[in-house]
UniProtKB/TrEMBL annotation:
Keywords: Hydrolase. Belongs to the esterase D family. The lineage of its organism: Bacteria, Pseudomonadati, Bacteroidota, Flavobacteriia, Flavobacteriales. This is Alpha/beta hydrolase. It comes from Polaribacter ponticola. The keyword Hydrolase applies. Gene3D superfamilies: alpha/beta hydrolase.
Length: 117
């Protein structure tokens, strides 16, 4: 994941209902080796589909997302650079469109505030 890389080109990220469970939670394990300083200037928005009616991997997906977010918080990485948002009515297939909207709004919240003034 580019977010965890110190050589990353980007400073803002959208993780839309990410599958942190994949490959035995390799992304979560990689976090332990990443220095907190490398993440402090980056923004991360994570969206999570809350409805599990149409996707049987809901439980498999949700717990690692919460664990990833908790690990970031434990490193004192919090608002305004970090946000997780749960969408109760959305599932893994419907959450991307609404996540892009809310994610970009979060990423550009400082620019948006300047334009409103």
């Amino acid at each position: 994941m580019s977010y965890l890389s110190k050589e990353s080109t980007f400073d803002s990220y959208l993780a839309i209902d990410p599958s942190f469970w994949w490959d035995n939670q390799i992304i979560i394990k990689k976090m332990d080796a990443v220095k907190t300083e490398a993440l402090k200037s980056k923004k991360m928005y994570i969206s999570s589909a809350y409805s599990h009616k149409t996707w049987d991997k809901f439980v498999l997906n949700r717990k690692p997302q919460d664990l990833f977010f908790a690990k970031l918080q434990n490193r004192s990485l919090t608002s305004p650079n970090l946000k997780i948002q749960y969408f109760e009515e959305e599932d893994h297939w419907t959450v991307p469109a609404i996540s892009i909207y809310h994610g970009l709004k979060f990423i550009y919240q400082d620019s948006y505030a300047i334009e409103k003034e």
